[in-house]
Amino acid sequence: MFEIVNLTTQRVDKKYLSLVADKTLKFSGIKDKSLSLVLVGEQRIRNLNKKYRKKNKVTDVLSFGMDGTEAIRINKISEINKFLGEIVICPSYVRKSAKRQNRSYQSELTEILIHGILHLLGYDHEHKKENAKKMLELQKKILNSIK
């Protein structure tokens, strides 16, 4: 199950986002798990980023695993707990980022959602370069499988 809560005025294609989430989980070998996506404005994501990551700035995506941390390690995903966690995305920031990179909004949003789900699954790009490389390679493979 993939629940989407849109707290913004931005329109999103929920069916497409559900497809992206489903393909990402299947590509990662995860079955019968659910997660939620919350779309928020810039002020709300700034507040969350400040509270949980001590970074007082707007960001595109935050991932919150069921154990209260930013991610659940893949080897700790419980067979009992079907809910992986929650991803928070700021569509207006994603739109600005896409424009800066001369990319489409949908392409950027797709990549950001995949990125957030991979964080929930324990992938990390901030602490070790080799982990970053693995995560980005997997992200590209998933993205290519969706196109």
Q: Which descriptors apply to this entry?
A:
single chain, 147 residues, alpha/beta, Collagenase (Catalytic Domain), 4-stranded mixed beta sheet, 5 helices, 4 strands, 16% strand, globular
In the predicted model, the low-confidence regions spanning at least 5 consecutive residues are 69-77
Bulk shape: globular
Q: What about the largest sheet?
A: 4 strands, mixed
Mean model confidence by pLDDT: 86
Number of DSSP helices? 5
| Proportion of residues in extended strands | 15-25%
How far the N terminus sits from the C terminus, by CA atoms, comes to 22 Å
State the total count of DSSP E strands.
4
Structural summary, described in words:
By secondary structure, the protein is α/β, with parallel strands linked by helices. 48% of the residues lie in helices and 16% in strands. It has one domain (2-146): Collagenase (Catalytic Domain), CATH 3.40.390.30. Strands 1-2-4-3 form a four-stranded mixed β-sheet, with helices on both faces. Helix 1 (14-27) crosses helix 4, helix 3 (91-100) crosses helix 4 and helix 4 crosses helix 5. The chain is globular and about 35 Å long. The two termini are 22 Å apart. 30% of the residues are buried.
